[in-house]
Design a protein that fits this description.
Layout (H helix, E strand, L loop, with lengths): L5 H4 L2 E3 L2 E3 L3 E3 L16 H12 L4 E3 L3 E2 L18 H16 L4 E7 L30 H20 L4 E7 L4 H6 L14 H4 L1 H14 L5 E6 L4 E3 L2 E2 L11 H14 L3 E5 L6 H4 L11 H10 L4 E4 L5 H9 L5 E4 L1 H5 L3 H6 L17 H5 L15 H4 L9 E5 L3 H12 L3 E6 L8 H4 L6 H16 L2 E5 L5 H6 L4 E4 L3 E3 L12 E3 H6 L7 E5 L3 H12 L3 E6 L13 H13 L3 E4 L2 E6 L2 E6 L2 E6 L2 E4 L3 E3 L13 E4 L9 H12 L3
Parallel strand pairs: 3-4, 3-13, 4-6, 5-6, 6-7, 7-8, 8-11, 11-12, 12-13, 14-15, 14-17, 15-16, 17-28, 19-26, 20-21, 20-26, 21-22
Antiparallel strand pairs: 1-2, 9-10, 18-27, 23-24, 24-25
Helix pairs in contact: 2-3, 4-7, 8-10, 16-18, 16-23
GO molecular function: FMN binding; iron-sulfur cluster binding; metal ion binding; oxidoreductase activity
Cofactor: [4Fe-4S] cluster; FMN
InterPro entries: Aldolase_TIM, FAD/NAD-bd_sf, FAD/NAD-binding_dom, NADH:flavin_oxidoreductase, OxRdtase_FMN_N
Length: 658
C-alpha cells in the first residue's frame, strides 16, 4: 500500500471505539431493508456486508424507526420494538459478518420525520413539505416523551444486537429533531420550545436515556445539519443569504451544546427538504461543498467531526483530513456506486472506482417514490443477494451493436460472466450520447463514467470494432448465440418554417461544437437537456432565453429528481435566464424567431437557435434479421428513450441473464 492517502487510511476513535480507517458509509435505506418478520432482510444484510467487505471502517444503517404508537405511519419501515426477537436475530448476523472485515456498524435511530411528510406530527403546526395548504399535526408533551423513550429502548435493543454504537436521527434534513431545533419551525411555549437549549431538550434527553441504559462508554453520534440554506417554507437560498432556518453560527453553537451534553461525535452536512440540493446535492453542486462548514465545527469542538456532502474525491478527502478540517468522511451515494471504494483507494486503484453521477435517479428519488432504491450506475446496489453478477453456466457468443452506455454495460457484464463478446460501434470512439451529455462543466462524472467503462472493457476479453457500421447481411453471417442492439436515440427536429436557417442548430451538434453558439441564444425546449444547456451558456456569459410550449420548464418527460429540479430553478434565477412558458415557435428567421402565445405573436432576436425538444429511438435493423439463429434483444434508448439509469439497468439485466 502506498502512502498517498495515509490520512484516510489511519485509524481514529469515537469515544473509546477504534475505527480502522476514515471511510464512513452514510445511512441510506428504508422499508426495503426489512423482512416480513420485522428484522433485516437477507438482501439488506448482504448490501451492508458488501460495503464492509469493500473497506468501509464505519457503516451507518438507514434510519431505524423507534416509535410505533404516536406516528400514524413510519414511512421507513417497522419499529424493532414491535418484533425485537426478529430484529436481534438478523442484526446479530449482520454485525457478526461485517465484523469479520473489521467494520463497525452504528444503528441510526430516528425519533420521526415530522413535517417532511403528510399527517406526521411535528413540534408545531407548520406547512408540510411539498403539500400546499396542508399543516402538520402538533405533538403533545406526552407524545414527545413517548417518542424519546422509544428511541432509548431501540438503542438498548441495538446494543444487545451487536451494534457498535448508535446515531441519533437527526438534527438534519429537516427531520423531526431538526424541526424541534429550529425556531422557524418550533413555536412551542413549553419546555421543548423557546430558547435554543429548550429546542434541543429532546436531543439531550435522548442521549441521557441511551447512556443510562447502554452505559456511558457506548458511542452515540448525532447527524447535524450546520446550515439550512432556506429563505422560507419551500424556498431554498442558493447563496445562503436571507437565512430563516439555521445559520452557520447557530449550527456551531448547537455543535458545542451537543458536545457538552455528551455526544461522542457529529456527522455534519447541510440543507433540509426545502433546500434539498444542499442536503442531497446534484451534479451542479461542487464536490466537498460542506468542508468549509465542517471546518468551523471542528474548530469549535473536541469530538470527531465526520464530514458528508459529495466527499467522493480521494484527493479532496485526504486534504480535508490532513489539514484538520474533518476527522473522517461520510459517503452515501458513492458507496452505492462502488462498494469497494475504500479498498480501491487504499490499494492505489482509485482509477477503478465506478463514479457516482450525483444524478439522484435511483437512490433518493426511488426511495421517496416508495420503490426499491438503488444506484443508476450500479444495478446490483441494494439488491446484491438477488441481483448480483452470476457466472455463466454455458459460454455463449454475444454480439453487441452500439457502443453507448447501454451497449458498454451489456458487453462488460456479459464478458465478466464468461461469455465471448464482440461489440460494434459505427463511430470511432465509445460513449454514444455520453460524449455530448458529458460536455457540460458540471458533468465531470459523466465523462469519468465513460472513461471507466472504456478501461473496464479494455481489461476484459471483449473484441471492440470501432468505426464499423454493420448491416443485416453481415450480422446474419456471425456465429452469434445472442445479439443485443443498443443503437441509442437521436434528437427530434420539428417541422418549423425556417428550420433550415443557418442560426438553427440541434442540441447534440451544439453540445459537440460550442464554438458554433452565438452571444444571444434561444433554446427551444425546456426539458432537462435544454435547461442544462441554458445553464452552461449562462455560466459562459451568453444571453439565454428558454422557450417552452407547456406551462413550466421541466414539466414533461421523465420526472427530474427533486433536488436537481430545485437547483435548476434557483440557478436560472441566479443567472437571470429568461423563460417564456406557454409559447410555441411559429417561424425561424435569419436573425431570430417568431413565437405565438395567447393568440398573439412576438419576435425574439437570436444569434443561435438551439433545438432541444426531445429524442426518439434510432431505427434499428433488429427486426430485419431473418436468417440468424441468435436470440435478439433491444435495450436502452434504442428501445425506449430514458435515463442513464434505465440504459445501464437494461444492459445489466439482459447480459446478466444470458
Amino acid at each position: 500500500m502506498g502512502n498517498s492517502y495515509e490520512c484516510l487510511c489511519k485509524p481514529f476513535k469515537i469515544g473509546s471505539l477504534t475505527l480502522k480507517n476514515r471511510f464512513c458509509m452514510a445511512p441510506i435505506g428504508g422499508n426495503q431493508h426489512y423482512s416480513a418478520q420485522g428484522g433485516f432482510s437477507e438482501n439488506a444484510i448482504q448490501y451492508l456486508v458488501e460495503r464492509a467487505k469493500g473497506g468501509f471502517g464505519l457503516i451507518f444503517t438507514g434510519a431505524i424507526v423507534s416509535d410505533y404508537e404516536v406516528d400514524p405511519y413510519s414511512g421507513i419501515g417497522p419499529s424493532p420494538l414491535q418484533t425485537p426477537d426478529a430484529f436481534k436475530f438478523s442484526a446479530t448476523e449482520l454485525n457478526e459478518r461485517a465484523g469479520a472485515y473489521g467494520a463497525k456498524i452504528f444503528a441510526q435511530i430516528t425519533m420521526g420525520l415530522g413535517r417532511n411528510y403528510p399527517e406526521l406530527p411535528a413540534p408545531s403546526a407548520v406547512p408540510v413539505f411539498g403539500h400546499a395548504g396542508m399543516l402538520s399535526p402538533v405533538l403533545t408533551n406526552e407524545q414527545i416523551k413517548k417518542k424519546i423513550n422509544a428511541v432509548v429502548k431501540t438503542a438498548k435493543l441495538a446494543k444487545e444486537s451487536g451494534f457498535s454504537g448508535v446515531e441519533v436521527h437527526a438534527i438534519h434534513w429537516g427531520y423531526l429533531l431538526d424541526q424541534f431545533a429550529m425556531s422557524f419551525m418550533n413555536h412551542r411555549n413549553d419546555e421543548y420550545g423557546g430558547s435554543l437549549e429548550n429546542r434541543l431538550r429532546a436531543a439531550k434527553e435522548i442521549l441521557e436515556g441511551i447512556k443510562q441504559v447502554c452505559g456511558k462508554e457506548y458511542p452515540v453520534s448525532m447527524r447535524l445539519g450546520l446550515k439550512t440554506f432556506i429563505k422560507g417554507f419551500g424556498k431554498a437560498s442558493l447563496t445562503g443569504e436571507e437565512e430563516v432556518g439555521r445559520t452557520l453560527e447557530e449550527g456551531i453553537h448547537i455543535a458545542k451544546l451537543l458536545e457538552g451534553y455528551g455526544y461522542d461525535s457529529l456527522s455534519v452536512d447541510a440543507g433540509v427538504y426545502d433546500s434539498f440540493y444542499y442536503a442531497c446535492p446534484p451534479m451542479y453542486m461542487p464536490k466537498g461543498y460542506t468542508i468549509a462548514l465542517a471546518e468551523k465545527a471542528k474548530a469549535a469542538v473536541h469530538i470527531p467531526i465526520l464530514g458528508g456532502g459529495r466527499m467522493n474525491d480521494p484527493d479532496l478527502a485526504e486534504a480535508a483530513i490532513r489539514d484538520g478540517k474533518v476527522d473522517a468522511i461520510v459517503m452515501g451515494r458513492a458507496a452505492l456506486a462502488d462498494p469497494n471504494y475504500p479498498n480501491k483507494v487504499i490499494t492505489g486503484q482509485s482509477d477503478k472506482i465506478r463514479p457516482c453521477l450525483a444524478c439522484n435517479q435511483a437512490c433518493i428519488t426511488r426511495l421517496q417514490q416508495g420503490l426499491q432504491p438503488g444506484c443508476a450506475v450500479n444495478p446490483a446496489a441494494m439488491r446484491e443477494s438477488r441481483h448480483g453478477l452470476k457466472p455463466s453456466l454455458q459460454t455463449k457468443e454475444v454480439v453487441v451493436v452500439g457502443g453507448g452506455i447501454a451497449g458498454m454495460e451489456a458487453a462488460r457484464t456479459a464478458a465478466k460472466r464468461g461469455h465471448h463478446v464482440t461489440l460494434f460501434e459505427k463511430q470511432k470512439t465509445l460513449g454514444g450520447n455520453l460524449i455530448p451529455g458529458g460536455s457540460h462543466k458540471f458533468k465531470t462524472e459523466v465523462r469519468d463514467l465513460n472513461a471507466w467503462y472504456q478501461r473496464e472493457l479494455a481489461e476484459l476479453p471483449v473484441t471492440i470494432k470501432l468505426g464499423t457500421k454493420i448491416d443485416t447481411e453481415q450480422l446474419e453471417k456471425l456465429p452469434a448465440d445472442v445479439m443485443i442492439f443498443a443503437v441509442g436515440a437521436e434528437p427530434i427536429i420539428p417541422e418549423i418554417s425556417g428550420i433550415e436557417q443557418n442560426i438553427v442548430i440541434g442540441c447534440i451538434d451544439a453540445l459537440n461544437h460550442p464554438e458554433k453558439i452565438g452571444d444571444k441564444v434561444v433554446i427551444v425546449g425546456g426539458g432537462l437537456v435544454g435547461c442544462e444547456m441554458a445553464l452552461t451558456y449562462a455560466e459562459k456569459g451568453h444571453d439565454v432565453t428558454v422557450v417552452e410550449a407547456l406551462d413550466s420548464i421541466l414539466s414533461a418527460g421523465i420526472p427530474v429528481p427533486v433536488p436537481n429540479r430545485q437547483m435548476i430553478f434557483d440557478l436560472f434565477e441566479h443567472h437571470h435566464i429568461k423563460v417564456l412558458n406557454g409559447h410555441k415557435i411559429v417561424k425561424i428567421k435569419d436573425h431570430g424567431i417568431v413565437l405565438a402565445a395567447d393568440g398573439s405573436e412576438m419576435d425574439i432576436q437570436a444569434d443561435s437557435v438551439v433545438i432541444a425538444v426531445g429524442f426518439r429511438p434510432r431505427k434499428s435493423i433488429a427486426s430485419e434479421l431473418k436468417q440468424s439463429r441468435a436470440v435478439v434483444y433491444e435495450i436502452g434508448d434504442g428501445r425506449q428513450v430514458g435515463t442513464i439509469m434505465k440504459a445501464i439497468w437494461d444492459g445489466y439485466e439482459i447480459a446478466n441473464n444470458i
